[in-house]
Amino acid sequence: MILDEHHDLMALREVFIGGDPERIRSILAEDAAYYSQASGETYAGAEAVLERLHYVQAHHSSRYFAFMGEIESVDAPRDPSLPYGSGKECVLLASEREDNFESMVFIETDGDGKIRKMSIVCDSRFHFRVKTA
Which of 52, 48, 45 is nearest to 15 (CA)? Predict the structure, then answer.
């Protein structure tokens, strides 16, 4: 198993399109965190992250589409509340239709390549492209 940001994002994408969240247990750091910009809540610890992913799958009323993506530009690149800039890879989430993008998933990894932070962000100041390969 390759542990790095790109492969971790690919595994996470599979979870968002309906895969079992348990599949990413081995790529979560013990102190992993899940942050939702929409709710402002943070779930701390690998178990809490997995519980949250299970909850989202069970309670999301529509179908998710998930694509690998990349940030092309940011409207306010020096704003500290937008820590990710051009070139940052992410998972793009769409709801109901493939072109109805609602949020982006960014991750940060630890020294072992495991996910230490997952941020679900819905900020129109990020401009992205869907990666096709």
Answer: 52
Query: Residue 39: helix, strand or coil by DSSP?
Result: coil
Find the helix or strand (DSSP H, E) in which 13 lies. helix 5-16
H/E run at residue 42: strand 42-44
**Sequence-ordered list of residues with C-beta below 8 angstroms from that of 77, at least 6 positions apart, any chain:** 85, 86
- Tell me the per-residue pLDDT of 65-113, one tens digit each, with 9 for 90 and over: 999 999 999 988 677 777 888 899 999 999 889 999 999 999 999 999 9
Q: Which of 13, 101, 18, 118 is nearest to 58 (CA)?
A: 18
- For domain 5-20+27-130, the question of CATH label 3.10.450.50 is answered with yes
Report if pTM > 0.85: yes
The full set of domain ranges for the chain reads 5-20+27-130
